[in-house]
């Protein structure tokens, strides 16, 4: 990343909303990274005598059906949910950029084929794609990641392609060709670096959606394998407890909501700071 | 005089009320159709459309006397011809196996029918009592063809099918002419409820909320997680009746470390049935100590063969088998940690149960890693022999379930234990095909069961109860639930309160 | 002759910026006033201020007055202003390509003005539109009426925009660079058309342009703007014969005329400052060949000359 | 012109659908497990199992199975469900109305509210209003729909008693599902509307509309909103797949039948013909959606339509 | 002086669909254009928007492939060059683009942009040579070497255009194609850039192909002039003093205003519009607007025919 983009991220923190949401995300990241060491209670050890305890001391968010501390599991869940979503989206972003850049640069039949497939998957409900994929690969975090990655691949491919097509028309590309540049030089030095910022911002926003998709897969019982906590898995096992121990589902749900909102707000701040609203248009 | 029932999770998604071809029937079927024979909660058989029956000593013929004056909803009479027309319709369907032993059906007189058998079938009465053996009107059945069971379903039962919206609800109205109740219900005339709606609500929380807000009057089948909530709810009463299944943990005997019977036994002894009953199931239901439900006579095995929790012995056995505890508490042998795969089904209850099992296995130094799989995938994994332990359950009130899960001819699935053993197959054959009468069959199955128990092929865990919740302000339910499940016999005695 | 528009010491703010200050000029009935200056000099803002459209871009008038036909528009409430706009003052914008709603037929876009301001009904408005199109020398006006903007050439679209401005018989036309986006041949035709309209209808017009040649061709009076201020105004003859402000003089010198080598084009050193960085004193002083210390310190007052005035400390001395 | 074009595009659907059908078939048959196990009950023998496998042609090679399937599709028959024991077309036909009503209403709800929200946030000069609208927009798209659904049931059905908890027989039962799904779509529509409005408001012709003396509301309703319609329609047309199949979670919670639920149930049971039929249907709907989007765009925009003169 | 660029019968045809539903139609953006350039001369190309000037420039530099025709540069047939050779050859023929605002990658600093030609052509420079080169190039185009670390968005249009010129000249090309290099700049800046170009040409003996829509500018700047109309060259003036003979060239001249109110023109009405370039029928493309058009003009396409002194006209009835 060049100085321009770096300063953009910095600038995103300068608005109150950007600071607030960015700060929240940073804290969440720290919690996720250090979760194994900082959670007040062990997240897997069962304490059946203490099950479904209401929020209070020492269990600030109460305990679940196995007497496990909800707060600790929410903290640890950040690790699972964020890493699943971020890894998936990251992977999706890389593949999507490669596909989109190739489609946009080479055009022709290749582009048509890629875009037809991509549009079809884009128009298909995420949850169906994810459920099919999880059924094919089998459950577990890796297949959840794969499913999220595939579900969002279309978005990145479309965005990158749109960018490349738009950039290709810019005079500076023609000027560079006219200097005798090879396609490799043009792609790697001009097209991709210019296309990357919007893709990263959209990717960041997609992490929020990825968290929701992970949660929904969790609701259908897929995703993280017990006893590993993830927000989705917690909510899904919590639906049964909705009336007995509502905190088991409410807290992870709230954290998901707040996190996704924070990601959205920070994404907006970033878009404004990087001044790429124009380039996100139509995608 | 109307009542709304919510179908239990296991009965959702029926696409037809055609008992002959269907593979999925729900409780409403038992109200539309009558069966020749009914089974009670104690697994005893009672007359219904067949008033009496006689099995020849060699088991090669069965004779049934039929109830006189029975009429189908379409006005057709029910008689021996009905049966003669009905049995052959099973040919070529997925349900054909139920009547497969019948060679031919002979009409003796209008109210007497005789089955001539290909081979003895000690399970005949059990099969005839199943919901797939509800008798449809031969005339309508023939006339409607593929649509039978979807637009119309015609039986002799206490209720007529009024409308069926697939996946949503089934509306039944009372058959006012009904006068041929079985002796399992007190009521011997038409039903007391005029109209019943069976609703399909996939999400259990939603179903519970429907009961709470009056959207449904009866929940057939309440998951155990909801018991405590419903108990605290004024608007609901719970009836608990013995279930018809067992939750257990099959052990794959074909892969290490479970090729060693000592490890299998240790694993079996590690599971604390009592603790599970109390923590996971809030004390509702029963502990399971062998493979069959306790109402079956075959479950009464020799003392000492039942599997019960014994942590000390389990640990001793593992020590003996060479698995030594390491610092982290996990045992190891030859540098190989005692780490096993524990499969479970994608279902909240099983996931809960499995997490407790996982914790208990940890106490004997076994590190079990849970994998949650959907029901089709899990079968595929079993077939590929990718499993070691699994937590699962079955629902079947007949001892032939032993054949299903342990027959050497069904390795992989359903024989998840991958159990193939000459002696076992010999005992299986005796029980399945060489028993001529019911009594003989019971004895043979008990022997088979005892042998299987001695080999530690599985760990019995829990016998679920069936829980029915209802709104005591809107409906009344008889004290005692008759029949193996909460079905027509009990519903006949229900009343709507105003 | 009576004054139809008089702008005095106009000052416009957008947010914390003041992109326009001390703009003054007056326009007599039947006259054409040229507002000339380089990009960003505030020409369009002046037009927007006269039309009362500054709120659209988040701006407001913070000083001075705009007197139209005797009444001060700066205090005019919005509903009354709406009557004026399109009714008595017509606006023609720079880019005909984007000046028409692409989803509506061009005819109806003209009709609406007559219906709104003259209270005509649908068919009367339509007849009037077709008539007007004919007057603007548009061939087959009745069929043009039914076309969509994208089906017309740039010159044709500009005529439609002019028709829109004329539809309610205004007294004043404000033409914001009406020919900049057009080819020279079309530009000539449009300028001719506008000149004929002024003459035939007795209209007055503020013609905004950055092209001194257009001013020379079509205007009676000129206001030269630089960096958000008027620097000189006067009659066309005076401005071209005897420019008093160094900027005016330089601007005229930038136009290639005659043949190569006749006289080297010099241009003006430096660049136009942006709104946020307007220099102190005379805004032109960093680029001015004549600048002295006073220029950087004191904003020059207007110094009147024969037929106009120039805001330069040395305006009197030049010449 | 439009008709000819539409016909051409419809013809193009045939080869595309065929290639999609291959993909769908392969994906479905890649799934571990098979439908026969769902048919077998205790007491049936391994021979019965084999007989069933043969009966449903599952013993044939994949190529043969595919050709058989595609042949029956081409003759207008989606085949017979293996586990669900009904013609696939009948199953789809029974579930489609539920998906369509729910989808169409949710669609209408999110488009209308989304467009209003987007318009308000684009036009509002007041930053507080803008933030409030934005928060509202974010609401639906930041929580999993099952969570929102359960909480809405708790509030509106259990506590307030306004709507039934579940079901699909009465219109009141539609309210909560529509709201749940609709909320998710608002953000998308609002964002698109807002962007379109902000962009269009920058164009010269809007200045000129003001200069003609038109009132703000006339300009907004007669000129700006039609422009905002264009991208909204395109994006919504592309989402037809979501309308038909994407409501699984909501269907599950509210106990409604629908294509999504059918698909998931059939997927769980590996009922190949049903899964294949549903997926093919969805793919077709998606492609039709694209087509509808293009045609709608042409109907709304003369530049796209390019009427002959 | 050697024949150094030879363009023969160059054509570029574009096919496009009319809207979403329409049938395909085609147009010649450049139609049968032939001309030669001598080393060290400045050849101007004028014509209205869309007449194919930029397309011609791109064809000459082989930035797009022609539909037919040939380009010989310094004795080499450009169209026969393989990609690798072509890339090397590009160092000798450079272009300055119409729109300076997007001519530099926004992520590149001025220094990066100016050094990119060396990087692409594989010229390795030590870091000292590099900074010398940067400041040398920037000084050459009249920029302060301190701008080297700026990003494009920190520069004005004129500054960007200077960087465009610096980039183009970095590899010391023999031919420089200037595609309306000042069209989007203010007059004062235009004059600066034109001045710069003149100076550079004199200093370095460059050969320019100078494209513009401004006849006055071309006449001022160029040695020879090609006049284009709808893809064709309609008149080739051997020098700028030569009187125009093609009616279109005369129309262009008549439409150009003088920056002097005393030289106001009587603008002649011009019939018709520029016809759509798509699917042009036979005959002279200007016939519809030409005051002298005869029946012959509508059926027979006039060919560019040279008369004395290298002055060629494509007209059946030239002056
Ligand atoms: N919406 C706005 N917000 C902030 N500044 C603005 C806005 N609109 C115009 N300006 C500034 O006001 C100054 C004058 O702009 P204006 O559009 O009047 O120039 P102009 O003379 O019409 O230029 P052009 O020839 O390019 O049309 C410019 O410096 C511009 O940056
Ligand atoms: N890639 C393309 N595809 C289709 N048509 C094109 C393409 N490039 C140019 N044209 C068309 O070719 C014609 C000539 O374009 P060109 O850009 O060469 O004109 P120009 O003389 O440079 O105009 P301007 O003065 O506006 O720059 C135009 O009508 C244009 O629409
Ligand atoms: Mg302007
Ligand atoms: Mg050009
Ligand atoms: Ni998606």
UniProtKB/TrEMBL annotation, chain A:
Transmembrane segments: 17-38, 82-107, 127-154, 195-224, 244-271
Domain ABC transmembrane type-1: 78-267
UniProt-listed CDD domains: TM_PBP2 (cd06261)
GO cellular component: plasma membrane
Location in the cell: Cell membrane
BP GO terms, sorted: peptide transport; protein transport; transmembrane transport
Alphabetic keyword roster: Cell membrane, Membrane, Peptide transport, Protein transport, Transmembrane, Transmembrane helix, Transport
Membrane topology recorded in Swiss-Prot or TrEMBL: Multi-pass membrane protein
Protein name: Peptide/nickel transport system permease protein
Organism (species): Rhizobium loti
Organism ancestry: Bacteria, Pseudomonadati, Pseudomonadota, Alphaproteobacteria, Hyphomicrobiales
From TrEMBL, chain C:
Membrane topology category: Peripheral membrane protein
Subcellular location(s) per record: Cell inner membrane
The entry's keywords: ATP-binding, Cell membrane, Membrane, Nucleotide-binding, Transport
Domain of life according to the entry: Bacteria
UniProt xrefs under Gene3D superfamilies: P-loop containing nucleotide triphosphate hydrolases
InterPro entries assigned: AAA+_ATPase, ABC_Ni/Peptide_Import, ABC_transporter-like_ATP-bd, ABC_transporter-like_CS, Oligopep_ABC_C, P-loop_NTPase
Family: Belongs to the ABC transporter superfamily.
Record's protein name: Peptide/nickel transport system ATP-binding protein/oligopeptide transport system ATP-binding protein
TrEMBL record, chain D:
Transmembrane segments annotated in the record for this chain: 12-31, 100-124, 136-165, 171-192, 228-254, 274-296
Name of the molecule in the record: Peptide/nickel transport system permease protein
Record keywords: Cell membrane, Membrane, Transmembrane, Transmembrane helix, Transport
Family: Belongs to the binding-protein-dependent transport system permease family.
UniProt subcellular location: Cell membrane
Chief location: membrane
One GO term describing the cellular component: plasma membrane
UniProtKB/TrEMBL annotation, chain E:
SMART domains per UniProt: AAA (SM00382)
PROSITE patterns with a match to the protein in the record: ABC_TRANSPORTER_1, ABC_TRANSPORTER_2
GO terms of biological process kind: peptide transport; transmembrane transport
DNA damage in keyword set: no
Pfam families registered for this protein in UniProt: ABC_tran, oligo_HPY
Subcellular location per the Swiss-Prot or TrEMBL entry: Cell inner membrane
Chief site of localization: membrane
Gene Ontology cellular component annotations, sorted alphabetically: plasma membrane
InterPro entries recorded: AAA+_ATPase (IPR003593), ABC_transp_ATP-bind (IPR050319), ABC_transporter-like_ATP-bd (IPR003439), ABC_transporter-like_CS (IPR017871), Oligopep_ABC_C (IPR013563), P-loop_NTPase (IPR027417)
GO terms for MF: ATP binding; ATP hydrolysis activity
Protein name, per record: Oligopeptide transport system ATP-binding protein
Organism: Rhizobium loti (Mesorhizobium loti)
